[in-house]
């Protein structure tokens, strides 16, 4: 059964990590319902991406694992359903 989750991705070294993060999000794009990204105007190198993600738990865990392997990226997920 597919899960519905909210995923928060904090990118600490935005200019360095964003290409890798974008590649991973593209890989899992069919499971991403919506995406919102912003940067902290007080901190030029911090960025925050919020996803609504719907798919099997294994796929969510795989995406989180891939993202956490990128230097300076922190990921948190909340199961909604």
UniProtKB/TrEMBL annotation:
Matching Pfam families: TM1266-like
Record's protein name: Iron-only hydrogenase system regulator
Species this chain originates from: Clostridium acidisoli DSM 12555
């Amino acid at each position: 059964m597919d899960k519905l989750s909210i995923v928060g991705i904090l990118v600490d070294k935005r200019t360095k990590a964003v290409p890798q993060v974008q590649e991973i999000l593209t890989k899992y794009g069919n499971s991403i319902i919506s995406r919102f990204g912003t940067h902290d105007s007080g901190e030029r190198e911090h960025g925050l991406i919020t996803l609504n993600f719907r798919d099997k738990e294994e796929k969510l865990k795989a995406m989180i694992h891939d993202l956490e392997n990128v230097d300076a990226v922190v990921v948190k997920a909340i199961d909604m359903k």
